[in-house]
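Fold this: Cache domain-containing protein
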Amino acid sequence: MKALNLNSKFILFALLISVIPLGFSLFLSIMNNQKMSSLSVEESMKLGDADMTHIVENVNSMCLAQNGLAQEVISNALKTSRNILESTGKVTLSMDEKVTWNAVNQFTKTSTSIDLPKMLVGGQWLKKNQDMNSPSIIVDKTRDLSVETCTIFQRMNEKGDMLRVCTNVQKLDGKRAIGTFIPAVNPNGSPNAVVSTVLKGNTFKGRAFVVNAWYMTAYEPIYDDSNNVVGILYVGIKQKTLEKSLVDEIVKIKVGQTGHVYVLNSKGEYIVSKNNEQNGQNILDTKDGAGNFFIQDIIEKAHGLDAGNTGSHKYFLNRNEKLPQTKIVKIKYFKDWDWIIGVEAYEEDFLVVKDKIIKLGRHSNYLFVIASAIILAAVMLASFFFARRITKPIMLTTEGLYRGTDQTYLSSTQVSDSSQSLAEGSSRQAASIEETSASMEEISSMTKQNSANASQADNLMMDANKVINTATESMEQVIASMDDISKASEETSKIIKTIDEIAFQTNLLALNAAVEAARAGEAGAGFAVVADEVRNLAMRAADAAKNTAEMIEGTVKKINAGSMLVSATNKAFSKVAESSTKVGQLVSEISKASKEQSNGIEQVTSAFEDMDRVIQQNAVDTEESASAAEIMTTQTEQLREHVGDLVLLVSGKKDQGTALDNYRAIKTISSRPGSSKRKKILPRRPEKIRAVNYLPVDTDEDF
C-alpha cells in the first residue's frame, strides 16, 4: 500500500467506494435468491404433499362410490332372487329322501361324505347339477335378471356349516361349485362372519371369500315352516369385476412427472400397478435402497390408520442408476375391499420450480456482475483524470522541500560527529584515570592489609614464645617425675626378689614336713595335707613374685626410654623458642615498613582523585555538547523522514537524496583501516549520550 503513489491511491479509493456497495448489493441478491430457493422448496413440498393427499382421497372416494353402487346392485339382486325363490315355492326338506354329498371345505379343500335330506323348492328338487350348460332353477334366473352369481345353501349340521346345493359360482375347472361348503369356523379358529351373521337371523352384506375368489356379497337366511334356519340365499359380484373399470381409471392418474397411483392388498399383491405391468405380483418382501422392507411398513401403517385418515411414508429408492433418492407415499386404507391405496412420487419431482428459480437467480447475478464491471471501469477512468490534476502540483512542492531538508540534515550530522568524537576522547581519558586510581586504591588496601597481618603475626609469635617457655618448664618437671618413678621401680624389684626367696624356703619346709608326715604314718596324715597346701601356696607365691618382677622390670625399661624421649623433646623446645624469638623480631620490622608504605600510597591516591574530578567534569561538558548536536541531528532526520513520507504518499517512491548518500559514502571510506590514525567509535542511535553511560562515579563504596 505504501509503494503506491497518490494518483494510484486516489484511484484505489474510488474503486473501493464503488466495489463495497456493489459487492454488498450482490451479496444481498445472492442471499435473496437463496431465500427464494428455500421458500420455493418449502412451498413446492407443501403443494406436492397437498396434491398427493387430494389424489389419494379422490381415489378413495372413487372406491367408496363404486362400492356403494355395488352394494345397491347386490341389494336389488337379493330382492330379485328372493322374489324368484318365493315365486317358485316354499323351501322344504324331504326327510325321507337322503342325498349323499362329498362336501369340500372351500378354505382347506378337505372333503367329507355326508347324507342330507333333499332340499325342495315348491316341491321340486334342486338336483346335483355341476354342468354350467345345464340350467339350474332360481340361481340362473337370478343371474339373467341381475347379478352374475347366485347360490342356495343347505345347512349341514348344528354348527351351521353351509353346503352349496345349487349355484352358478364356478370352480377353477369351470364346473358349478356345488358340494363346496362354508365352515362355521374359519381355519384360524375364529367364527365365520357370514355363517355367524346368518345364524343370528341377520343378512350379511360385504366382502367375502367365495370358493376361490373375493366377492361383494349378500347372504340372507332361509327358514323352514318352524322358522329354523335351514339354508342361505346368496347373491354376489366378483370383486375383480367391480375393480376393472376403477383400475383402468386409477392407472390413468399421473402424479408429478414420474409419480403414479398403485393399490395393494394386505398380502402385498399388486391390484393396480404402474401401467398395469405388475398386477397380481407379490412385492411384500421388496427392500428399498436402505435395505428396509418398505412395502411391509406401508401395509402396517395403512392398517393402523383410522377411518378417513391419510398416512405418509418415505423410503429410498435408486433412480436411473443414481444414488438412492427419497420417495414420498400417501396412504389410504379402503377396508371394504382390503385395498391399500398408495400415491407415490420422487421428492425431486416437486423441486423443478426450485431449479428454475435457481437458474433465474444465477442469470440475474451474471447480469448484475456485468453491470458492476461496466460501472467500475467508468469509475476508474474518471478517478484517473481527477487524480492527475490534483497530485501534480503537490509533487513539485514536496520535491523542493525534500532537497532543503537533505542539506540541513547533512550539516547537523557533521556537527554531531565532531562533538561525538571529542566526547569519546574525554570519556576514554576519564576511564583511564579512573582505572589507575582504582589500581592505586587497591594497592593501598593490600598494603594496609599486609601491615595488619604483620602486626598480628608479631603478636602471635610473642604468644607462641610464652607457650614454648611454659612447655619447656613442664618438660623439665616431667623428666624429674620420670626419675623418681625409675627409682621407686628399682626398690619394688628388690622387695619382689625377697618375696621370691621366702616362697622358695617355705616350699622346702613344706616338702620336709610332708616327708616327716609320711614317716609318721596315719598319725601324720592330717599334717601331710596341711604341709601339701602350704607347699602349693608357696609355689603360687613364687610364680606371682616372678611375674611381678618381670612386669616391674619391663616398666623400668619403658620409663628409662620415656625419660630419654622427654629429654630430647625438651632440647627441641629450647631450639624452637630461640627460632620463634628471631621470627618475631623480623615480623615486627615488616609491620613498621608496611605502615610507612601505606601512608605513601594514600597520598598518591588522593592526587589521582583530584585529577579524576577535573577530567570527569570535562567529559560531562563535552557529552552535553555532543548530546545537543545529536538531538539537533535527530530532529533534522525526523523532519526529513516526514518529508520522505510526504514524497512517498505523493509519488509512491521514497528518494533519500544525493547529499546524504555522498556524506555516508565519505564516512564509510574514512572508517576503513589505515584511513585514519585512530578509529572512531560512534555512539548508538537514537539514544541520547550521557556521561553516566561511560564514566563510573568515584565514591568510597567502589573500594
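The helical segments are 6-88, 139-145, 193-199, 239-251, 294-303, 352-520, 525-651, 658-670. The first helix runs from residue 6 to 88.
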